[in-house]
Specification:
single chain, alpha+beta, five-stranded mixed β-sheet, three-stranded antiparallel β-sheet, 6 helices, 23% helix, globular
Length: 188
């Protein structure tokens, strides 16, 4: 079944909504991956990409570390947690509601191993919607933009962000909730 992008339900994320992203600091929080390896990466438009955010901190953790259950401490410390607070309401496509089934959204689209249909949907949304929302374990947002780090001009249209080290309480929560284990780095 192909997803009909025109029939997708919409959701408005209200001004003041906070989103989270864990990333390597060198790439910055607004890096739009155009590699095609991400679920909702646009692949039919080579100069476009997706920047993945989560609706809570733990979702940001799961987005980056996924199923790597044993993590060297250095891998965690090599990343930062950014928060973005929406300054204005943002209307996006919402794949999390039951009405999305009418447009052809199934669990395979949002959780399956084959990203072909999800990539095609991202292609169909370019120029129509700035982002889409889906849920696996936590609410996630795929924000669309020109591939690579956001340019100065593009940053003017994106929420301001704050970046800090990943807090210890988030690491502990991820370990407790999902069974991740953070291993000490070997002595050098």
């Amino acid at each position: 079944m192909t997803v009909d992008a025109a029939k997708l339900p919409r959701k408005t994320l209200k001004a003041g909504t906070v989103l989270y992203r864990i990333h390597r600091p060198g790439l910055g929080p607004w890096f739009f991956d155009g590699s095609g390896r991400g679920r909702f990466d646009p692949t039919g438009t080579p100069r476009r990409g997706a920047c993945y955010w989560a609706e809570d901190r733990l979702g940001g953790w799961v987005e980056i570390f996924r199923t790597r259950m044993l993590l060297p401490e250095g891998e965690v410390h090599a990343r930062a947690l950014s928060t973005a607070t929406l300054e204005r309401d943002l209307a996006i496509c919402d794949l999390t509601v039951k009405r999305a089934l009418k447009a052809g959204v199934t669990a395979a689209l949002t959780a399956g191993a084959d990203y072909t249909e999800a990539n095609a949907l991202a292609d169909a949304l370019q120029g129509r919607h700035p982002a889409l929302r889906w849920r696996l374990r936590h609410g996630r947002i795929a924000w669309f933009g020109d591939a690579g780090p956001a340019t100065t001009g593009a940053l003017a249209d994106l929420p301001a962000t704050k970046t800090a080290d990943i807090p210890t309480d988030l690491v502990e929560r991820a370990c407790r909730t999902f069974g991740y284990t953070v291993l000490p780095d070997p002595p050098s």
